[in-house]
Amino acid sequence: MLRMGKLTDYGIVLMSYIAEHRSKQHSAHMLSDAVHMPLPTVRKILKVLSAGGLLTSERGAQGGYILSGDPADISVAQIITAIEGPIALTECVSSASQCDQETHCAVQTNWNQINNAVFHALDEVKLADMLTPTLSAARPVQFYPPSYRAKAVSLQDGDQHE
Amino acid sequence: MLRMGKLTDYGIVLMSYIAEHRSKQHSAHMLSDAVHMPLPTVRKILKVLSAGGLLTSERGAQGGYILSGDPADISVAQIITAIEGPIALTECVSSASQCDQETHCAVQTNWNQINNAVFHALDEVKLADMLTPTLSAARPVQFYPPSYRAKAVSLQDGDQHE
DNA sequence: TTAAATGATACTATAATGGTATCAATTAGG
DNA sequence: CCTAATTGATACCATTATAGTATCATTTAA
After folding, report:
1. CA distance A14 to A55
2. Nearest CA-CA distance, residue A63 and chain B, Å
3. Is residue A10 part of a domain?
């Protein structure tokens, strides 16, 4: 399974919540209550989201966070990028290939394209889309065949615990 | 950054190598030498790839591995799925939502679409494509704007070390 | 029957991640 | 002007996941 940090997941939930209540300014405390996440964690995420330019913060009493832009303009890719860093599946792409594989790594070049494909997929989904309960009708969605799921075999020891 | 296990990266390199030398059968030992990866690790990956149906194994002396299918038919998505498990960015999708967020998680529904988009992006890139040094001309590739890279802010402590 | 190979399982150390605590800086309001 | 509320920044810890290794069982060609 392609893994993404749990904090990023939280981040998207937070962004969704804020987008749903754009009128108000939200403090970390309020959001923590509203979305039932531990306050320190919420604070950490909000800070990063703010540093990434997705949220605008106001300090001091009665301060808080608001969306920096329109939900229709903020993509999932932007949120992920803000929290996780640049979207890339492999290390070697972002960190200018310090691996000793370079010789056999004609592969590397093509990773760029893969990463791009993934990025664009994520960039097409906007925050506004996340608010709508289901948009199945709007976009042509094809669930990938269950055979793929079934074929997965654990790399780790013993149990797969899922 | 969206993370993918290093072993998966290795797996793709291995598959690429095997695809480039389809005629022969390859033992873990040979591959370990050829691609300069630790033998035990190579063995582990090959086993999983074999269990996933992407490689066909033959036991005993003079045994080894060969590609199960045509490189043009094997997608990167398949390789990733074989090694990492089903392609999904969040936990809650694959493990039938055991999170306590369900109330606020209208978001969850839409993750399916995101995961799908990513899956299709990865499924379109075939192993055969990885062999060609660059296919820039063939497919329209757009590198995402560097602004996204720049905006990334570390969630972790201190340094970003990259 | 031996050697070469895959299959399976168990173990360990390192690193990444999530989570927490603490203090500094800012600002509205009494 | 002082207090309380709030974000900003940094440092720290514990748990988990990952990569990597070791060991033994199984199969098969020579």
Report:
1. 11
2. 22
3. yes
pLDDT tens string A88-131: 887 654 444 445 555 445 455 577 778 888 898 899 989 998 88
**C1’ D6 / CA B94, Å:** 38
Asked if residue B156 is part of any domain, the answer here is no
A5 beta carbon to strand C: under 7 Å:
yes
Of A3, A4, A139, the CB nearest to B113: A139
Q: How far apart are CA B114 and CA B159, in angstroms?
A: 31
Residue nearest to nucleotide D22 (CA to C1'): B40
Report the alpha-carbon distance of residue A153 to residue B79 in Å, rounded.
11
Query: What are the residues whose beta carbons fall under 8 Å from the beta carbon of A28, sequence distance 6 or more?
Result: A39, A42, A43, A46, A64, A65
Q: Could you tell me the CATH number of the domain that includes residue B98?
A: 1.10.10.10
| Residue A95 within any structural domain of the chain | yes
Give the distance, in angstroms, between residue B36 CA and nucleotide D14 C1': 35
Pairwise CB contact (< 8 Å): A113 & B139: yes
The answer to whether residue A151 sits within a structural domain is: no
